[in-house]
Amino acid sequence: MRLPIILLSASIVFTLTLQNVYASFIDHPVHSDKWTNKYDRHFKKYSKRYFGPLFDWHWFKAQAIAESALAHDAESHVGARGLMQIMPATFDEINKKNPHFSKLEVPKWNIAAGIYYDRTLYRKFKKTAAQDKLYMTFASYNAGYGRILNASKRTGSKEKNWDEIRPFLPKETRGYVNRIRKLMGDH
Predict the structure, then answer these.
(1) What b/e string do you get for 162-182 counting C-beta neighbours within 10 Å, with b at 16 or more?
(2) CA–CA dist 148, 142 (Å, integer)
(3) What is the chain's mean pLDDT, rounded?
(4) Cα distance between residue 60 and residue 171, in whole Å
(5) Is 80 exceeded by the pLDDT of residue 133?
(6) Are 80 and 86 in contact (CB under 8 A)?
(7) Cα–Cα distances in Å, from 172 out to 138, 142, 146, 187?
(8) Are 171 and 147 in contact (CB under 8 A)?
(9) What is the pLDDT of residue 14?
């Protein structure tokens, strides 16, 4: 049942669905049947394409849960849209290299663009263990690569380590990565 609920906060109006409110307060694991499997084929396909066949595609589903609670029509107050909450300008940049990603609003292309963007961020972390690279990729997706780079510089370490960088990141970003990890049972 999807009923609109309107919440007023600091003169900003947020319209949420009952499903999204429920999902945001009770985090069921990504593997739970509480989350739709409607988009799983897209998460599988684009995870395999951009991260390889052995990569666990559930990480990206968990990211989409953290971003939009798997609501294909989600839109943030700053204009990020879709399952993966991609800004239109970011989608335009991604689309220049992937012109077949036809529309930001189409779940298949939103997921493809989000995972492609994750891959571009993931590749930027050269001297980092794979699991730390993944956490820093999600942090970059949330806060921007520049913020993660600045936090990394503050550690003074050449090897990039999530546990060292985390204290230098915004609380929202730490919570975002922790939520994805919790959804995956990795926390």
Answers:
(1) bebbbeebeeebbebbbbbbb
(2) 10
(3) 87
(4) 21
(5) yes
(6) yes
(7) 12, 9, 16, 17
(8) no
(9) 41
**Beta strands at 4-9 and 12-17: parallel, antiparallel or unpaired:** antiparallel
User: Taking the chain, what is the end-to-end CA distance rounded to the nearest angstrom?
Assistant: 31
| Least confident range of 11-20, 93-102, 177-186 | 11-20
pLDDT of amino acid 127: 84
The residue ranges of every structural domain in the chain are 36-123, 125-187
Does residue 146 register a pLDDT over 80? yes
pLDDT-derived band at 26, boundaries 50, 70, 90: low
Which fold is adopted by the domain 36-123?
Lysozyme (1.10.530)
Question: Residue type for 101, please?
Answer: F
**Gap between the Cα atoms of 68 and 110, Å rounded:** 12
Q: Give pTM, 2 decimals.
A: 0.84
